[in-house]
User: Fold this.
Amino acid sequence: MLLSYLLIASLVLNAQDKQPENWTREGKFGLNLSQNHLSNWAAGGQSSLNSLGNLNYSANYLKDNTKWDNSLNLNLGYSIIGDAKSIKTDDKIEFNSLYGLKASEKLFYSLTFSFKTQFADGFDYKVDSTNPISRFMAPGYITLGAGMDWKPNAYFTLNFSPLTGRITIVSDQTLADSGTFGVEPGENLRFELGAKAMAKLELEVAKNVTLGSKLELFSDYLKNPQNVDVDWQTLITMKVNSWLNANISAHLIYDDDIMITDKDGNKGPRTQFKEVLSIGLSYVFK
Assistant:
């Protein structure tokens, strides 16, 4: 856990070079910690330690009729309650890239690329903490699409890619043998060809309060195109001062290829939802 946070911090320090010509770069590193200790506490309870590290970094190029937008998002969080083992609370590696050629004042022909996976093993802690249900590159998602990018103003972007290929990678053979994340049992790869739409909003809704939201929709032409995959991420950032922020994040996912077992043992596709409220240190760099 500590090594992962040090890795994120080193990326921050190594990124602080002079802005090259035609490039705009900006990053934000955050570290949120909370701790409580109880000793002979009559009201009961347990000591706990919670941590969450995140890095959001963008590098955008703009010259004449060409643009190239890149963003990297890294999250990793753990919680330790009492003498129990640490529990993962957040984990994300996501890289997005868009190359555009101007078609009109607010419209670009676009090529989009995205890569998503996670750092560490994930577990169903209600069952056990020894058999992972997800790992690094299990799953991993690689998406490449061609289409149009519309940017009517400074805070909203809509991209539609009617020709999009997506590869799902399950590198762990045990998970692949069980057909996890939509791959055929025993296979490590799954290919989908479909259409993808992505809407992004970045807006200051009040003084020192920023709303960021990204909605991704994907339909597979080859299998059940009527079943649309949904990935919706929202982040509200409330700036206290130059180094202290409060954040509320929400992440909703629906993918009918991901089977989830409920508390009654029934297995099937379900809406996934995660919410995180954090207060901690932040550092903005360019």
